[in-house]
Design goal:
By secondary structure, the protein is α/β, with parallel strands linked by helices. It has one domain: Rossmann fold (3-Layer(aba) Sandwich), CATH 3.40.50.2300. About 45% of the residues lie in helices and about 15% in strands. It contains 6 helices and 5 strands. It has a 5-stranded parallel β-sheet with strand order 2-1-3-4-5, sandwiched between helices. Strand 1, helix 1 and strand 2 form a beta-alpha-beta unit. Helix 1 packs across helix 5 and helix 2 packs antiparallel against helix 6. The longest helix is centred in the middle third of the chain and has 15 residues.
Length: about 160
């Protein structure tokens, strides 16, 4: 009997301003198979009570992933959510991968390198191969009551 390879759960982050460039890439990644993409896209303001709730939710999702992929472009460093996801994933010691959406993002490459990210070409097959290699990390424990309680506690705050 042939054993099926376990799908890698990859947290995908991209700046909202680069989303138009990222959509065809994500479509190719879905088509390539072998990956489960968990996208952390949000339009919520970062420094708000609602932002706290979103961060708690994204943190829970990040903990379930085997790696993080950042599709980066010129607007990446301007996006608080992308920077937060990258820094949090680095703290969680997730393998970080970065793929360029355009050529004008040398400052982003420097930022990613400082976090320990591996820069990969913007090619679906290469990205899938690298996430499989980088993601040989066992999934964390099932979501525990403390994680859920923290999220629910933050949800009690009134939204503005």
């Amino acid at each position: 009997m042939r054993k099926e390879a376990r799908r890698q759960r990859v947290f995908l982050t991209v700046a909202a301003g680069d989303l138009v460039l990222a959509r065809p890439v994500t479509a190719r990644l879905y088509a390539a198979g072998g990956l489960t993409l968990d996208q952390g896209l949000t339009s919520e303001p970062f420094a708000t009570v609602r932002g706290e709730i979103v961060r708690a939710s994204l943190l829970t999702r990040l903990r379930r992933c085997t790696s993080l992929l950042c599709l980066y472009g010129a607007r990446t460093l301007d996006d608080d959510w992308v920077r937060w996801a990258l820094e949090t994933a680095a703290e969680l010691k997730l393998p970080l991968l970065g793929a360029p959406l355009d050529d004008g993002a040398k400052d982003v490459e420097l930022f990613l390198s400082r976090l320990g990210a591996e820069l990969v070409p913007l090619d679906g097959e290469s990205i899938v191969a690298r996430t499989r290699e980088a993601g040989h990390r066992s999934p964390g424990p099932a979501i525990d009551a403390a994680s859920l309680a923290e999220t629910l506690h933050l949800m009690r705050h009134p939204l503005r």
